[in-house]
Amino acid sequence: MATSLKIRQHIQKNGVKVMVLGHEQVGKTTIINNLCSIISDTLQSEGDTFKFMEASLSDMPNLRKLMIGTANAFILTYAVDDDASFDYVTTLINDVQAVKGKNTPVFVVANKMDKETTIQKRIIADCVITIDYECDHFEVCANTGKNIDSIAKKLFDYYGKYLLFPTSIEEEETYAEIEETMTKSSKKLRTTIREFFCIR
Fold it and tell me: What is the 3-state secondary structure (H, E, C) of the chain?
């Protein structure tokens, strides 16, 4: 059975678990509430396709790893007027990537953009997150809801193709056959291109 089909079945059964982390008072709860509202309106459902978990990681290394291991994606939040909260987020990125690897979706959210901050700090923060850590970076204002939809869109970019679930074994087999055919066609096309241009 195709890997993507297994992921689809897993999401259908368990949903996508999104862990939301960050210092206190950086707006985690408000961000979650906004995301839940946007996703509910988009899916036109009150289901638990995306399960947001606000958490505080344990100081015990083994328990910390165990907690990180339970999530599928991460939203790491800091406040633009709190330098310590940004430093904490960079620590969290290292912790998450050490456990889950660099392919796991990690969204870093700069909240409270309604607060005064310098353009230099914003540029530096964006470079650190997107270049040094290779994570997605969003500037938002949770109180007004500004740009929260961009986080939701990114979640759909990662998981949207798994949100339409087969309703029968026959449909599941059809999905698998289509995916296998597309994979073979893609490989054949790449081989043809290499031969045409004499690429080895």
Answer: CCHHHHHHHHHHHHCEEEEEEECCCCCHHHHHHHHHHHHHHHHCCCCCCEEEEECCCCCCHHHHHHHHHCCCEEEEEEECCCHHHHHHHHHHHHHHHHHHCCCCCEEEEEECCCCCCCHHHHHHHHHHHHHHCCCEEEECECCCCECHHHHHHHHHHHHHHHCCCCCCHHHHHHHHHHHHHHHHHHHHHHHHHHHHCCCC
Superfamily of domain 13-162: P-loop containing nucleotide triphosphate hydrolases (3.40.50.300)
Q: What is the pLDDT of residues 44-61, one digit of tens each?
A: 654 568 899 998 887 788
Q: Where are the domains of the chain?
A: 13-162, 166-200
Question: What pLDDT digit, counting tens, does each position of 166-186 carry?
Answer: 444 445 555 555 556 555 555
pTM of the full predicted structure?
0.77
